Structures are given as structure tokens and as C-alpha cells.
Amino acid sequence: MRTRRRLRAVCVAVLCVIFVVGLFAGTVSPYSYSKQFRERPNAAPSSSHLLGTDSLGRDLFARLIYGTRVSLLLAPAAALLATLIAGLLGGFAGFMGGWCEKLILSAADLSMALPLLFVLLALRAVLPLDIPPILSVIATFILLGLLGWPSSLRVVWAATKNLKNSDFLLLARATGCTRWRMIARHVLPNLRPILLAQFWISIPVFVLTEATLSMLGLGVTEPLPSWGNLLRGLEDISGVSANPWRLSPLILLVLVVICFQLILPAQEETA
Amino acid sequence: MPSPSPLKKKLVLISLLAFALPARAQTGGELHFCLRGEPKTFNPILVDDDASENIRYLTGGVLIRLNRQSQALGPALATSWSVSHDRRTITFHLRKGIHFSDGTPFTSEDVAYTMRLLMDPETHSPTGDAFRSSEGAVQVQTPAADVAVITFPAPIAGLERLFDQVAILSAHSPKKEMAVLGPFYVADYKAGSYVLLHKNPNYWKHDAQGQALPYIDSVRLDIQRNRDIELLRFRRGELQLINRLEAEQFERLQHDNPAVTRNAGTGLDAEELWFNQSPAAPLPEYKKAWFSTKEFRKAISLAINRADLCRIVYAGYAKPAYGPVSPSNHFWFNASLEDPKYDPQVALNLLTQAGFRLDNDTLKDRAGNRVEFTIVTNSGNAAREKIAAMIQQDLSQVGIKVNVVTLDFPSLIERITRTFDYDACILGLVNTDLDPSGQMNVWLSSGENHQWNPSQKTPATAWEAEIDKLMREQATAATEKERKGKFDRVQQIVAEQQPFIYLINKDVLVAVSSNVVGAAPVVLNPAGFWNVDILRLGPASEFGVQK
Amino acid sequence: MLAVLCFAGGLLSASLVRLAPGYGVDERELDPRLSQASMEAIRNAHRVNSNLLSYYGRYLARAIRGDLGSSEWLQQPISSLFKERFPVTAKSVASGVLLAWGIALAISLANVLFPGFFVEISGTLVSGLFIVLPAAVVAIFSVYLHAPVFLAIAVVTFPKLFRYLRNLLGHAYSQPYVLAAQARGIGQARILFHHVLPLVSPALFALLGVSLSLAFGAAIPIEALCDSPGVGQLAWQAALNRDLPLIVNLTLLITLITVAANSLANVANERAL
């Protein structure tokens, strides 16, 4: 138990450090993420470029830090959105039952069946061309949040159904509590730990989804860096063995996700 | 006397065998390489994508073959041909005694049948459209089994070379388009996986010793979109050829195993940037004014560092391009035009002349609007994205802010052909044809591919009107020299006006395993296997197997 | 219910494709060799499908008779495309899920039968290592290591499956009567098959449903990146090419599978509750 708590503390510390570095990317990073040092493309790590440069001569360390800002700040926002929607809809479905429940669950199934990749393609194409790149990234993450709720929904729904049959709720019903009051004062507060757990679980999922999307070409557009964007360099497999420092975004991603996983108490994950 | 040592015995044996072996070319084996996409059709008349075109090259028999190496036309199924004075009629004398891959005899009737199908108004293919210079039906006469006379309604520029794309179909064979006259025929096809071609036993070509071609028994074409996987498989020895490598891959392969890499030279393909000059574009008026100003476009062209693009994006395997014709196109390239040097200062001077001014590192126009625009290009093309990122930095040196947006292809095409809702676009020009007549739709102001301002009812500017006149004249000019003179002038106008800002011409990079004998990659398509019928597979001496 | 969902799903995705920018344009429009007449013909071919509801109505009428229409991009009948590609995906998904289940069960059982910090942390680390890799990276590594596609799918499915399974089994084994049985000295195998499994089987079915839909969802980027000729790659290419008939059919297929998998989960959950 003690080891577990210590481990959790270490993970939180690591995450905070990375988060703060990402937040103050401008001060920490020596260069801008888009400045091309054209005399030094694909350079190995050195004193002037801590992680070397990419194929266009841009400092990888700077790109990693700015990429952290994008991925680590926006993924929680998307996760929050998704968890809130899941919480509201799941709670509603579990509590009301009947056709309401059926409708919401069907909507969830339908939403999962929709080709996410296609919706994102469509979104990119619809956005006006002259908006700043950061806005298109925010739009992408909002969309991810809006489409990401089905997976959390079932957990919330199952938990609500459990709650519905619990004693204190029965007591509240017996004392004449109205439906809305029950939802607001009894159901939702008890759902909070579950929602919190889902929020923590979703963050790495959104980070990974963004990574996969960027590798397929649908995520954050150049020159704005994000972890997924930087991972595209991995597609060139022989290039990676020649320049192993290109793995640094993957290592950072893995570290952050592991930290998130270890923070989460094991008991709070149920099917 | 002591008996000869075992080593000596071996040497004697080997040398005996070497003399005993017949001095004939080694035959057999399977050539294995990849198609980059799914072939949409095996019917040579309907071919309009790369994968199908490759299959057509491998299986189709043509009347006249353009030798990809010498760039000259030579006899194939036609032993000789003659074009009438008015350049409307072409008479072919066909090779006798030839049969299709299934045994059906080849006669002039097959030529007539093929031309009829090709010229059918319901058929819409680039091959057929190349012959459609005007309205009217095409007449084909077959006075003898080995003579075909084709008459077109109007003269066609460069008529003979168009027949390099026309694979002859059989009029009578029960196998329809699967009966072919080329070196191979399609034996098996699994959608999404591979196409297997077997040697055509009835192929008409023989080598100098009289042996039937092709030497190899079969060709396996895997359908592989991912270039990195393709390279991996080549290194493992699964593939023997990569037709057109990316520059970075080539560089790495060259570093590990130089024997397998071949650079055929500067190719015909170009990357270009153009500005939206369509009056229908939903852009603010001041932006439209910038893009239609010649000095603006020329300044942008001067401010782009093409040498850096070649060095960094293509690892040096590209040359700066300044015009629509690549220097490798020896006949049509206008060598008298001067290449403008990269100079941001001269660019700034030009912009100042046009009324722009630099204000604290920001370029502003006469009205005080900040010069800022967006370049769109297609996603999934790493080289183009890098070019856009580099142009972004180059133009920031003259105070211009550039945004880069990558879109999937259908959305991109919609923007540049339907809605015209874009500022500037970077795309590549794929030039399969040496003759500029193939590009009529690009240069005519009424053309659909006149990308910066397509389908004009009347020419919008004087220089576009002049290009229209010159292009029409070169299509009907009497001699090649006259044609060249006119097209040289077109190139000059393009250099002055910069409707397309040409960026680079890529080198044609091929990887050939060292056990493929006879490979001689060239600049024209198909670069790696244009001479597939004389390729041989030797023993694997030094496979491309590394790492 | 299933039918209604599938119908709605198909209609939804059809409208998405139809209304998204880039519908009805063809790459061939950039080919300068084509004449004006050819361009017109290409554009008109796409206009046929432009009225969405009538298209959908006609499609359904034909689908009932077994004719799924023809792909615009590949120019092949869709039913034959499915027949060729579905077995590939089904095989990789099935093998992947089976492998993931096998390993997850083995490790979770080890966890409960031989408890200890070391066993627990190693399980967490292994699953943690796999869960952090984006599906795309897993796909790329599997290509590099010459590994088959189902291995990539197994790697992607394993982590979540393992955690749920471990919690489930942990929960089951901490039940008082199981502890009592263990204290009594009843054999582990008997405990597993007579006491634990009947308790957890509804939840296991739910988990099976979830893991199947998870694996199927992961199949799309994995197949697209590994160039495996299955349904996933077809879906990705269809989206890129705006092939309306193909996308409608694929959505129907995916909705069918997802809903079936989730219905399994629903049924199991209801029985458990």
C-alpha cells in the first residue's frame, strides 16, 4: 500500500512537471517550434539542439515542448467534455429507464458505429482556410470530445442503475423527494467518483486518439506540433533506426500515459 | 606422378562446365514488384490510373512504341507507317503471322475494332480523348489483313506518338480484353492483394539470337500503398524493383547498398504553386488584386529558395524548376530563357514597385492590409507539406505571413475546381507526355485545367489570349520546328507572368536488386521496367538484404 | 430494434458523406488529357446519387434482394468486395481477440491464485505498456517486426480487457463463500469452475461484446497502416475517396457488428443485475 501511494505521488509529480513545462513552453524552449535551421537538417543531439533536429532542421526539443502544450492541455478539455456528456446522458438513462434509456443507449451505439475518421475528415474540409491553426486544433479536440462519450456512457449507466436500487434512494423516494431533486442531490453527487475516474481514464485515450489521427494525417496540421504529429516521423521505419532520438515523442507519450494509469486506483475500474 | 590436388580438379571441372554451357541468355524466374494502387480496369481502352497503365504497358501490344531510352518512335506491331500530307490519315503496315496470347490471329480487323471502341463517344478515357481534336467520326479501312488506314476528321499534332498508348484488342477472341499482344498476360488477380502476369507464349518479339522474349516467366505485382513497407520488403529481398522511390528512402538505401540504387536523371514531373485568379472566388477584393498583380507573383517566385527545397526536401535529388517543361525534355525545353536567381531583396523591390511596403517586418499593401494568405495542399504527401512549410519561412523573410492547410484530395479538388474558395495551392504536375499538345487543356484559357482561372468564356488578360493563339497555332503548324518556336514563346510568356510558379523537377529514382540483369532506368514512365521483355533474373549475388 | 438502428446508421453516414465537402468530385478532373465531354460525363455520373433519400430508398430496395450496389471508386460490385475482404478482417479480429483473451485470462488467474506485489505490478506494467501505444504505432511496429495483423489487434485489445478481467476475477475471488471454499481445502480447479465462473459469466459475456467492438474499431487504422486487404482498409480508402455506396454498406456492417456486440453486453448486464 505504501509503495503504491509513493508510486502515485511520483507519477503526479512527473505529470505536474511536464504540464508546467508545456504551459510555459515559450520560456523553456530556446527556439520557436517552426524555425528551420536549414544548414542542419536531421542533426544528432548536440549542445545547441538537445534532441537534434527534424528533416526540415527544426529543433526537436522545442517541437516536443510545444507539442506537449497542445496534447496535454487539449486532451483533458476533450475528456472533460466527453465525461460531462456521458455523465448527464448516462445518469439520465440509468435513472429514467424505459424508452428513455433505450433511446440513449441506441444513440450511443450509433455514435460508436459512425466512422470517426470520416467525421474528422469532413470537419477539416468544412473549416474556413484562414482560421489560425490553433483554432482548427481546438475544433478537432472539441469534436473528439463530442464523439467520445459513448465509451464512458455505459459505465455511468451501469453505476446509476446500481444506485437506483440502493437503500438511501429508496428512502428518499419514500419521503416524497421529487425526481429532479433526487437526481440533483442524490444521484449526481454519488456519481462523482465514477465520473472523476472516467475523466482520468479518458485523458490518455484522447491523447492516443489524437496521436493515431495525426499519424493518419487528420490531426494537428503543420507546422503546429503535437505528439501525434511528431510520431509521424516513426512511419519512416528505417529512418528511426538511423536517428533513434526521433523516438523521444513516443517515450514521452508512454511516460505520461503510464503515469495516468498508475495514478488511477485499480478498484475503480469495472466493466 | 602424384594425382592432381582436389582443388585443381575442381577448377578444371568448373572451367569445363563454363565452356560447355550454351552461350544463351538465362531465362525464367519471377519478377516481383509493387503497384501503388488498385488497378481499376484491365481494358486498355478505359485506362486512366497509374496502376492500370502499368498493367497495360506490361500486357498490351501497340503499333508504334516510343523507346523510353532514346525517346524515339520505333516499329512494334506495325513494321512501317506513313502519315498523309494533311496529317489526317495514317497508314500502318502490320507484322504478319502474329497471334494473341490465346492463339487468335492478329489482323487489321483488330486494329479497326480497337479504334472504333476507342473513338466511341460513350468511351471517356485519356487515351481516346487524345485523338479527339474535333467533332466527327474516325474512319478505319482495312484494305488487306496486314494494312490498316485510319482517317481522322481533323489533323492531329504528333499523331504517331499517340499510338504508343493504344493497346490493340482482339475483335474475335472469346477472352475479349484478356487476350493480349504484349510480353505478358494477366493470369491471376486478387483484389487488394496482387496481380500475377505470365509470359505470353505468342509474343512477337525475339532477341538477336532468335530466342523468344520475354526472358522472365512471370511478373508478380503486389498492391502496396505504403512506401515504407515497400522499401522494407525490397531490403528483405522479397521485391526486386521499386519503380520511383522517395528521395529520403533513396538516400538511405544508397548509403547502405549503393549497387541497387539508380538515378535516371531529372524527371518530367514538377511541383508548382499557383494563386487563385478566378473572378468567382469568394475572396476579399484586395486579395484578388494581389494575386492578379504580375509583380506580386514574380516577387513570390524570387523569394522562394528553390535550392534549399531541392537540398532539404529531396536530399539533393531534384533540380529547381522555372518553367512547365523540364530540361530532360530535350526537344521542347526552351533553353534560351534565363533562370531567375533566388533574391529576397529583388523580390522586395518588385513588391515596393507594385505598391506594397514593409512596415516593421510586416508586408502591407497600398490600403494597409497585411499581406497574409493560405496555401492549401493535399494531406498524405510528406514532400509537399515540407515544401509548404519551407515556403512559409521563405516568405516570412519578405514580411508575408503564410498559413498552410492540408486537406484530403476530394475536398481539395472541390475547392480548386468548384467553389474556388482558396488563396494559393501547391500541387504536382505529372507529365507523362513529352509533347505539349497533351497539355492543351491547361494552357487554353477555356480549358478546365487552366488551374488559376479555369473555363474562361473569353480570355481574361492579353497574355492569356496570346497563349491561346499560340497553342492553337502550334497544334496545326506544319513542321516540328514551327511548333517548337510557338511553344517556346508560350514558355517565355509563362516565365514573365508566373501564373504557375514552378518549384522543382524531381529526379527519377529507382531501386533495382542486383540479380536483375539488363535494368536501365530512364526518365520516362515506366522508369524501372520499360524494357521488361529483355530483363533477366540472375543468381542472387548480392541481394538488397540489409539490416 | 437492431434493424431500426442499422437503418438509422446507414442513413446518417450516407448524409454525412453526401453533405461533406468533396462529394461528387473525382480525381480525374485534374487530368488535362480528358476532353470536355469526358469531364461532363464524369461529373454527371456523380450527380445520379445526389438526391439522398431517393438514393437510400433505391439502395435498400436492392439490398433486400441481395444486390449491394457497386463501388464508385473501385468499379466493382460491393458484395464481391465484402466476400473477399470480410474473411480477412474476421480472421484477424477473431484471432486477435482470442489471443488477447487467452493471455489476459492467464495473467489474471495467476494474479488471484498467486497473489503478491510482484505479480500484480508486472501485470500492470505489461498491460500499461501496451495500453500506452497508439494503435497506429502498434501497427507500424508490427509491420517492422514482420508480425501478422492479428497480433497488432491483440496488443491493442489486451490492456483494457486485462484490467477489467483482473478486477472481475479479483472481485469474484474475494466473495465470502469462495474464501470459505478455499479455507475448506477444495481444489482450485473446482473452485474456478463451480463457484467463480458461474458468478462472473454474465460479466464475461459483456466483456466479450466490448472487446469484439474494440478490436473491430482498432482494425480500421491498423489495417490501413499495415496495408492488409480487409474491411478496415476498405473503409479508410472509401472515406478518403468519398465512395457513397461503399461507405453506406460499410456503416451498415459496422453498425450491425457493434450493435450485436453491445446487445450481447446489454443482455449479460441485465441478467447480472
Describe the structure.
- The complex is a heterotrimer of chains A (271), B (547) and C (273).
- With 271 residues, chain A is mostly helical.
- Chain A is built from twelve helices and no strands.
- Chain B is 30% helix and 21% strand.
- The longest helix of chain B is centred in the C-terminal third of the chain and has 18 residues, at 480-497.
- In chain C, helix 5 (117-131) packs antiparallel against helix 7 (149-173), helix 6 packs across helix 9 (188-226) and helix 9 (188-226) packs parallel to helix 10 (231-241).
- Chains in contact: A-B, A-C, B-C.
Q: Biggest interface: chains and residue counts?
A: A-C, 46 and 58 residues
SSE string of chain C, helices as H and strands as E: HHHHHHHHHHH
Q: What Rg of chain A, in angstroms, do the CA atoms define?
A: 22 Å
Indicate the low-confidence ranges of chain A by residue numbers.
266-271
Let me know the number of strands of chain A.
0
Oligomerization: heterotrimer
CATH superfamily descriptor of chain A: MetI-like
Based on Cα principal axes, name the global outline of chain A: elongated
pLDDT < 50 stretches of chain C:
none
The biggest sheet of chain C, with number of strands, parallel, antiparallel or mixed sense and barrel status, is: none
Helical content class of chain A: over 70%
The Cα radius of gyration of chain C reads 24 Å
Proportion of strand residues of chain A: under 5%
List the helices and strands of chain A in order. Answer: HHHHHHHHHHHH
At CATH's second level, what is the architecture of chain A?
Orthogonal Bundle
C-alpha termini separation of chain A: 24 Å
What do the pLDDT scores of chain C average to?
Answer: 77
List keywords for this structure.
heterotrimer, A: 271 residues, mainly alpha, MetI-like fold, elongated, C: 273 residues, 11 helices, 0% strand
What topology emerges from the helices and strands here?
The complex is a heterotrimer of chains A (271), B (547) and C (273).
Chain A: H1 2-23, H2 25-28, H3 60-96, H4 98-113, H5 116-126, H6 133-147, H7 149-164, H8 167-174, H9 179-215, H10 227-231, H11 237-242, H12 248-263
Chain B: H1 6-20, E1 30-35, H2 50-59, E2 64-66, E3 73-75, E4 78-83, E5 89-94, H3 108-118, H4 126-131, E6 139-144, E7 147-151, H5 159-162, E8 184-190, E9 194-199, E10 218-223, H6 227-236, E11 241-242, H7 247-256, E12 261-275, H8 285-291, H9 294-303, H10 306-313, E13 318-320, H11 344-353, E14 357-359, E15 362-364, E16 372-378, H12 382-396, E17 401-407, H13 409-419, E18 424-429, H14 440-443, H15 462-476, H16 480-497, E19 500-512, E20 516-517, E21 536-537
Parallel strand pairs in B: 1-10, 16-17, 16-18
Antiparallel strand pairs in B: 2-3, 4-5, 5-7, 6-7, 8-9, 9-10, 11-19, 12-18, 12-19, 13-19, 14-15, 20-21
Helix pairs in contact in B: 9-11, 15-16
Chain C: H1 2-19, H2 36-47, H3 52-64, H4 78-113, H5 117-131, H6 135-144, H7 149-173, H8 176-184, H9 188-226, H10 231-241, H11 244-272
Helix pairs in contact in C: 1-11, 4-7, 4-9, 5-7, 6-7, 6-9, 7-9, 9-10, 9-11, 10-11
